[in-house]
């Protein structure tokens, strides 16, 4: 026979799963709309791609609640636009979005963030930051890993902003230079 407290705990878990599913659907819809109203609209209307559409997609992809393949977008647009403009826009939009993620981590409650990302992912990110510090931030920005989640976790830990910014920027710069060398 189940205890009343067990039944309440099960309802609490079911409610969290329901909230997470709704949030996942809403963020997926937002990502689809962003791509549709930028890149998709340009394709449908037969227009050439614009830097604005790349910047919007790239910025959105670095927000922790929208998962988008920004490296693929960079490679795609690299065939269309000037290399140095692309790198500048990629770095500017990526670091801007990660600063937003960091500030969200500083200012929004853990419960809200955990509903978006999942408590396990945040705890894992925090563990890496506490254990390896700047190296974690650099590596997660260098490779196509979940650097936006690391940004939120760094904000939640109130990690030193200057170190967060510098190592994020270094990782991003190296990533986009390497991608440029291989795909230009």
TrEMBL record:
<dbReference type="InterPro" id="IPR032816">
    <property type="entry name" value="VTT_dom"/>
</dbReference>
<keyword id="KW-1133">Transmembrane helix</keyword>
<feature type="transmembrane region" description="Helical">
    <location>
        <begin position="51"/>
        <end position="78"/>
    </location>
</feature>
<protein>
    <recommendedName>
        <fullName>VTT domain-containing protein</fullName>
    </recommendedName>
</protein>
<keyword id="KW-0472">Membrane</keyword>
<feature type="transmembrane region" description="Helical">
    <location>
        <begin position="21"/>
        <end position="39"/>
    </location>
</feature>
<feature type="transmembrane region" description="Helical">
    <location>
        <begin position="164"/>
        <end position="183"/>
    </location>
</feature>
<feature type="domain" description="VTT">
    <location>
        <begin position="69"/>
        <end position="182"/>
    </location>
</feature>
<dbReference type="Pfam" id="PF09335">
    <property type="entry name" value="VTT_dom"/>
</dbReference>
<feature type="transmembrane region" description="Helical">
    <location>
        <begin position="137"/>
        <end position="157"/>
    </location>
</feature>
<keyword id="KW-0812">Transmembrane</keyword>
<dbReference type="InterPro" id="IPR051311">
    <property type="entry name" value="DedA_domain"/>
</dbReference>
